[in-house]
Amino acid sequence: MHIKILIIFLTFFFNSLSASEKVFAVKDLSNMFIQPSENSPIIYPIEIGKEFVLKEEKDEWLNVLDEITGLVGWIRKDQLSFNKPSGTMKGKDYNQSFKIFKQRVLEMSASIKDAISVETFLDVKHLGGAAAAVIADDEWFKGKRHANQAFQVYDLWKNQNQSPSFLSFRNEANKEQFIILSGPHRPRYLKSN
Q: How far apart are the first and last CA of the chain?
């Protein structure tokens, strides 16, 4: 009886450990897909060294969580490793690129306010790496041009990073309204649930 309880406990313990196990991208550039198939839509491209939380395995695929963006998708097993590749991401200082990006976004917002007396972007927060959140005025989301302006801000961020990038657009209560992220051909706009 005690052995059965011990086996159940150990199974649960090791399953919970594997649920938070980290995996790392080992190819220079690979893709995260919606489903475990290369014919499935791409969520976004990923760079070598990118860290994920392993959720499950299915055939030649791993279902992973990007803790920075909250996105979950599938990546081929041969493109991930349990060991972080050495020497990755040395050359990119995302903190410095974020400072420049934040300054440009807030300058853009001030210019728009001066020109047409409309409040747009209130703050920008760095989520780590090439991920950031833009806090916008609640009224901005109701405007006709907000999607076009969001893509302009995304272009600033991607150009600053020179890598696949992610932007979350949030209201004044810090609730995500939509995201824009790198796609295989052009940036993608996804409404938040």
A: 46
| Token pair for 36 | 């475990």
Quick one: DSSP state of residue 48? T
- Judge if 107 and 185 occupy the same domain: yes
Type of residue found at 13: F
pLDDT average per 10 residues of sequence, the chain (193 residues): 43 47 88 88 79 94 89 93 75 82 95 90 90 94 90 92 86 94 82 79
Q: Tokens standing for 22?
A: 């980290």
The pair of structure tokens assigned to 62 is: 């791993």
- Residue 128 in contact with residue 136, Cβ under 8 Å? no
Query: CA 100, CA 11: separation in Å to the nearest integer?
Result: 48
Residue given tokens 């991920």 in the structure block: 131
Q: Are residues 68 and 102 in the same domain?
A: no
- Both 98 and 75 in one domain: the answer is no
